[in-house]
Amino acid sequence: GQMGAEDEVMIVAAAARPRVVLEFSRDHAAARDALRQLEPLDTPTNLSTAIALARRARDTDPDRSDISLFT
Fold it and tell me: Which residues have a Cβ under 8 Å from the Cβ of 47 and sit 6 or more positions away?
């Protein structure tokens, strides 16, 4: 679905060493820009660590509820 104006987004790149590309933000233009700047890598991917990183960040605020995975 579409994000509402108050929805927050965080972007994690799940490479061999997952990293936060964008901390939680309501700046949806910044999120789009961050996604556009990501480039595919020919390296192993550590999805379990990336998801764990996202879960830990999400769990700091009980109002955050969803984690979406895009490949």
Answer: 14, 69
Query: What contacts 51, CB < 8 A, 6 or more positions away?
Result: 14, 67, 69
The number of angstroms, rounded, from the C-alpha of 24 to the middle of its chain's C-alpha atoms is 8
Tokens of 49: 């660590």
pTM above 0.85, yes or no: no
**pLDDT score for 1:** 64
DSSP state of 42: S
**Cα-Cα-Cα-Cα dihedral of 46, 47, 51, 57, to 10°?**
40
pLDDT digits (tens, 9 = 90+) for 26-67: 999 999 999 999 998 888 888 999 999 999 999 998 788 788
The answer to whether the CB of 53 falls within 8 A of the CB of 41 is no
